[in-house]
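Supplementary notes for students who missed Thursday's class. We covered one full example, reproduced here. Read the sequence, then the structure, then the short commentary at the end.
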Amino acid sequence: MSTLDRPRVDPVTAAVIGGALTSTAVEMGYRLARASYSSIIRESEDFGCALLDHERRQLCESTQSTPLQSGPIPGYVRGIDRRFAELGDSWRPGDVVIHNHPYYGASHQPDVGFVVPVFLGEQLIGFSVTTAHHLDLGALTPGSCGIVDASDAFAEGLLLNAVKVEEEGRRNESAWRIVADNTRLPQLVVGDMEAQVAAAKLGATRMLELVQRYGLETVQAASEQLMDHSEASLRQQIERIPDGRYAAEGRMDGFLDHPDPAYRDLLVKVAITVSGSDLHVDLTGTADQVDLPINMPFKGTVDIAICLTLRAILLDSVRHDAVASNQGLFRPITIEAPLGSLANPRFPAPTIARFCPGNVIADTVMRALAPVLPDQVAAGVGNLKVVAYSGASEQGSWVYMDIVEGSYGGRSGKDGLDAVDTLYANTRNNPIEDIESHYPLRVRRYELVDEGAGAGRWRGGLGSVREIEFLADGGFSLEGDGNLVPPPGLFGGHEGRAGSVTLNPGTAREQALPSKTPYRKARAGDVLRLVAPCGGGYGDPAQRDPAAAARDSEDGIATVASR
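Structure (token representation):
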């Protein structure tokens, strides 16, 4: 149907329907967070909730969601459609589908989606979906992060490809038993999954109620208008960029202790072509895929890293009115990446640590646009580190996933943000009290790095320092980046300091570890220190406001250039 042939609703009704959709997604998020057992969902909010229409287009998302969870949701549903076509299956009323296959639209193996189709009678009118990170799903070592020695996708854990855990209203106990039997934490993982199902069913109920109140045609027409508005808002900003090609390169650590240089200091290339209101991103030249898990699913990671970054640059909520997060924001953007590269791997290349290069892609997109959007980008960001701590007690196995925040680079008019989750992830840190009350761990140190921010007219943000001590025997694994390649400066700003990982610092057993460390055992008393990179500086350091420099001195902050 052409735009002219579509039915129209008045702007007020469209806004009310849009508000109802978003409120539903937010309500789903609250139900999921409050019903979950694990801190990665309950505290860090590493989950996503969204409603889709019958064409698999996202209509809304929960505001609590991390973009890397909510953004890929349409891809999850399209991946399930693809698998159903292969199997000769279809959507039916009362179905609930579990899905986490990274080559069928999912972000990576630990991010599990639950999809509930919404039917009006016998007519499929949409989908209610939740995604969330799960702490252990059958990987070769405990936890669902830091599996950095996995040689393929099968070693990363249980692959669930469009499996019906409820079929036409009947619970499939065999499917649930397979999940429970393939995790070290069956009560916790299954409990979190059941919270996802409850939240998705809530969304389906609310969506159906909205349609029954306003009528299907009105809700669909309003949804079209809302997507058109989001698209038009983004296109308007793209049109302000001069037509042309803008390119930049970024680098990631890779595997610093690997003997083959093809696994270290890996290149990410971004070329952005602007033509009118269309924007094309080409990742040709990015390093080839490797048989260790830093490859990125093209759908579910690469596309979200790019689209989220462009949306953040072009539709900054400080400068622009609010724009609904829906499928309209994807329409002006096209992306390509060579098959067989880090940004478009061939199955079964492992992908579990895909956030490491994903953040580099997002950072490189900003740097590519810096010459034409200097007031809307930041200097280099400090990447994250994620640790899976684990062990066993009389009560059974335990796993804790800890996110060590990175930092932002300086921006036009402002210093970089200190100790934050970066770019497309946006999860929260976990309170120390929660960690120490649930696990045999003690947080000995948690503070800002006091030196290392990139000097500039506006300095880079400060990373964090986190020291965690084992109070009982256990183990850990680690995925992260930024120990070799420091966050670059911009417009004459200096690079920030790279991060580090140290086991048992200040003792005779002190050992420097790389940014990616496969599972290793730890004894009671062992301490792991993780230092996040500091952001790059923006602009000539000689132009820094003397008052700002004085405040840094008073606060004990030393930039890289001043050391």
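Commentary. Residues 124 and 332 are 27 Å apart (CA to CA). The radius of gyration is 23 Å. If anything here is unclear, bring it to office hours.
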